[in-house]
Known about the structure:
Blueprint: H1 2-15, H2 40-57, H3 65-74, H4 84-98, H5 104-117, H6 125-130, H7 136-141, H8 145-150, H9 155-158, H10 169-181, H11 187-190
Amino acid sequence: ELTTMLTDAFVKQARNGAAPEQVQNADGTWPHTECECGEQIPRARLLLGMALGDACGAPFEGLSFQEAGEKLKAQGIIPGRYTDDTQQALALAEIVASGEEITPVSCARSLLSAYARDPRDGYSRQTQAMLTSSEPELFLSSISNEEKRQRKTDGAAMRAAPLGFIADRRTVIQSAVTSASITHGHQDAIA
């Protein structure tokens, strides 16, 4: 898998003192940069960096700083694949790249599509159940407003980074609120 390969290469070179931007494919080409995507390259690099950070940090999720340090000390951590956080961010990035408006239905459709093609670990039980929906409307109706109000985790914030690619600040804010509101309803999760 590309993410695992890039993560392993990054960690190996980082341990040898190389800068992250020096990570190359085995054939000497640069990942995700030798394409006809022009100005999209910085955006692709941002998403790749986010995915790599997520994959490297996944083994430490939920640990205190001290516990993470002890874990690092006790064993050589081999970073894993990126998690649900990156998968959801990529789903939003696909909407932004398509030029489609960020709506509850477009968010649900994109999340369902991303999960269907590449199931990931890390989702809460509630979100996991929502992802079994066959249609965006079923996804959206599978959680009550009361259940949403109880959800104050950072999941909605973790997927929001690609919304920053939208040029208009008000649209960014409205899109972030819309994206968050399909799974979260607590003010801390939407703020």
